[in-house]
Amino acid sequence: MKRIVIIFLLAVVATGCVHNGTESISITASKAYKLIESDPSANFFFLNDRPYVRNEGIEVGPEQVGDLAGEIESIYSKDQKLKDLMSTKLPVGTEIYHVKNDNTVDQMIVKENANFIMYTTLVEG
Fold it and tell me: Nearest to residue 46, comparing CAs of 20, 28, 58, 61?
């Protein structure tokens, strides 16, 4: 019985969810909402339950661009629920790429016109 309780508690903790009103949202989504609240002009997109924030400090060349991860499908507006491939600033249809030879999901590359821009995920914790 003690083992079942421990497994249940670990499962609850491992989900990394918080309760917000009547629905549960991930910790990273919660951070994204806080970012929007503190900076309404924040430039990020949401992909695979992670917010990716524009990072002008990292230069990106075309040789770093990996496989296509997706395209922006919708634009966030106040009081909407964040969902995959939603952006606060990027227009619908903007292409998002993985970083070539990078097995992490900490960074993504966005193609804006003829330029490539690095976006980095908000870190949990």
Answer: 28
The pLDDT tens digits for 23-46 are 455 666 788 888 888 888 889 999
Query: Is 72 buried (19+), middle (13-18) or exposed (0-12) by CB count in 10 A?
Result: buried
**What CATH number should be reported for the domain whose range is 2-121?**
2.170.150
Specify whether the CB–CB gap between 82 and 34 falls below 8 A: no
Tokens 């991930």, residue? 26
Query: By C-alpha distance, which of 16, 24, 28, 33 is closest to 122?
Result: 28
Q: Where are the beta strands (DSSP E) in 1-125?
A: 17-20, 23-26, 44-47, 50-54, 65-71, 74-75, 86-87, 95-99, 107-112, 115-121
What's the whole-model pTM score? 0.75
User: SS3 of 5, please?
Assistant: helix
**Which of helix, strand or coil describes residue 4?**
helix
Cα 86 to Cα 48: distance, rounded to the nearest angstrom? 11
- Is residue 85 within 8 A of residue 46, CB to CB? The reply is yes
